[in-house]
Design goal:
Length: 550
């Protein structure tokens, strides 16, 4: 389907040669391998090749699919001035770094689907390069190449590289934070610790899951029996980190007190639980599942089960060889660091979700530790002494990823929110109004504002207009009087506005029933035309569109 001729020649052969030679030597050693071409030049060439592979996999049809709810809400927040953006984020659960970056990105490249998604794609490509360089530095070039290939082909990372969200930036910052901290443990220089602290605070300003990097660092200090001086330096870095984060702390505390935001996470957590979430994480990290649970979509069931089985079997096989073989202590410690970076955030998030408020969303927030997974898996696969078994696992993982991507590329999400907007605009005239209910506004408005500003827009309930990416049906239904009053107030505004026609987007739930009743009782209509039933992009929620002529 796409041309990969650029990957031929000595560049690809060089990759395979490095992997093969790395595996014939002790894979956990710092390999004294000196290739024929200059080592620095070869590293640069490999980085370029991996980035090209990543671009070729992330670029196809990046703007073809509809902007969906979360993306549209992200764009609407990011297009605001910085001060107003912060007030909008108070109703969210996200820090501002990605939104600020997207704000200036859109000023340069615009707000088309391709433009707003290309930032995530760029970060996804940089993640592939970073995984290669970090794994190469901590272990060897073969492991770095293998980890980079797994990252480049990862369906979940390709999906997030084509989505206007922060889930390619978060793992990139998490990887760099942990890498420089490992370097600090081995070479306790302040400048290295400062780099780790810098990427840690950037991760904290990207997503609240970045806080889980701190217990990982503490565990690494304990596990390596670091001297008191290292603990002191780390404590000082924490103090500096706290000062840098202090401006955002009041917003974070406000977000934490906003229990409404976490209602949708609680619903997913109730379906999955701790072990189900961990399994979903493994699915999203392996090659057989690319869509997280909250989207309501799944990959192929047999590919998903087989991919998890292959990953588990490969990891266990490699672990057996590592236990039986005597490896250098330094390399083993680096692997343990990698496993701590992988496991601790997931365990702590899971326990926190059980005891306090659900915060663990498999296939989403867990992307923080994705780099640790691919690097650790590459190390374990590389430890397998039998070449036939080793390459069987590698081919199986790559093959299953390709099968999943084949399904991913051919899915058509165009018949969603864009079609709703086009239908409204096709029938609308100047002076009309649209009433959005539930979570229908953000993505439809994204397309309507790009085409026309003739139409007045309302949201029901009104609070949805302030934050168009999250509501809790259950919490709203606890106050039926408020819903009825809100509906009556909206109908009164429609009557006072003297609109010729009103377009109504209804979702089948009990909250919208209050609005339907208010419209029927207080807004006599000459003609009511049902323009069709649509499904929202990605989440596939059914939406009925009506045109009410007054």
């Amino acid at each position: 389907m796409y041309s990969f001729k650029i990957l031929r020649s000595s560049a690809l052969l060089s990759i395979l040669d490095i992997i093969a030679k790395s595996y014939t030597i002790n894979v956990m050693n710092d390999i004294p391998y000196t290739p024929q071409m200059n080592r620095g030049l070869q590293t640069v060439l490999l980085v370029i090749v991996f980035m090209v592979i990543a671009v070729l996999l992330r670029a196809p049809a990046i703007g073809a699919k509809d902007i969906w709810l979360d993306e549209a809400n992200t764009v609407r927040i990011a297009e605001d001035p910085a001060g107003f953006m912060i007030s909008r984020l108070k109703l969210d659960s996200s820090p501002p770094l990605y939104y600020l970056t997207l704000h200036y990105w859109m000023k340069i490249f615009g707000q088309s689907e391709t433009a707003v998604r290309s930032l995530s794609a760029l970060l996804g490509v940089l993640l592939v390069a970073a995984v290669f360089l970090v794994a190469r530095k901590l272990f060897n070039p073969g492991i770095g190449a293998l980890a980079a290939i797994f990252t480049a082909l990862s369906p979940i990372q390709i999906m997030y590289s084509q989505e206007t969200r922060m889930y390619t930036l978060l793992p990139l910052l998490g990887l760099l934070s942990c890498y420089f901290f490992v370097r600090f443990l081995e070479e306790p220089r302040p400048v290295i610790l400062a780099l780790s602290a810098l990427f840690t605070v950037l991760a904290l300003y990207t997503h609240n899951f970045g806080f889980f990097l701190l217990p990982v660092q503490f565990f690494m200090l304990l596990a390596t029996k670091s001297p008191p001086r290292s603990f002191l330096k780390w404590s000082i870095s924490l103090a500096v980190l706290f000062i840098l984060y202090l401006p955002w702390l009041p917003i974070l505390l406000f977000q934490i007190r906003n229990g409404t935001h976490y209602a949708w996470i609680a619903q997913i957590w109730q379906k999955s639980g701790l072990f189900g979430s961990l399994f979903q994480t493994l699915r999203s990290f392996s090659g057989g599942s690319y869509l997280p649970l909250y989207t309501g979509s799944r990959g192929s069931a047999w590919i998903s089960i087989l991919s998890v089985a292959v990953v588990v079997a490969g990891a266990v096989t490699g672990a057996v060889f590592l236990i039986r073989d005597k490896k250098p202590a330094g390399s083993r410690v680096r692997l343990y660091h990698c496993l701590a970076y992988l496991g601790l955030p997931l365990i702590l998030a899971g326990v926190g979700s059980l005891v306090f408020v659900p915060i663990y969303v498999a296939g989403r927030t867990d992307q923080l530790v994705f780099p640790a997974f691919v690097i650790a898996f590459a190390v374990l696969i590389a430890a397998v002494r039998s070449r036939s078994i080793k390459y069987s696992f590698i081919v199986a993982v790559i093959g299953l990823s390709i099968l999943t991507l084949k399904d991913y590329y051919r899915v058509n999400y165009k018949t969603g929110d864009r079609q709703i907007a086009e239908t409204i605009l096709r029938h609308a005239r100047s002076g009309d109004a649209v009433i959005f209910t539930n979570l229908t506004r953000a993505s439809v408005e994204y397309y309507m504002l790009r085409s026309s500003d003739r139409i007045t827009m309302y949201s029901y309930p009104e609070e949805v207009a302030a934050h168009m990416g999250n509501i809790s049906i259950e919490n709203m239904l606890k106050d039926p009087r408020r819903l009825a009053s809100n509906a009556d107030s909206l109908v009164a505004r429609i009557k006072d506005g003297k609109f010729n026609r009103v377009f109504l987007l209804l979702v089948a739930n009990k909250v919208d029933d209050f609005l339907s009743a208010a419209l029927e009782d207080n807004l006599p209509a000459k003609i009511i035309t049902r323009l069709g039933q649509f499904r929202q992009s990605l989440v596939k929620t059914k939406v009925d569109l009506y045109m009410i002529e007054l």
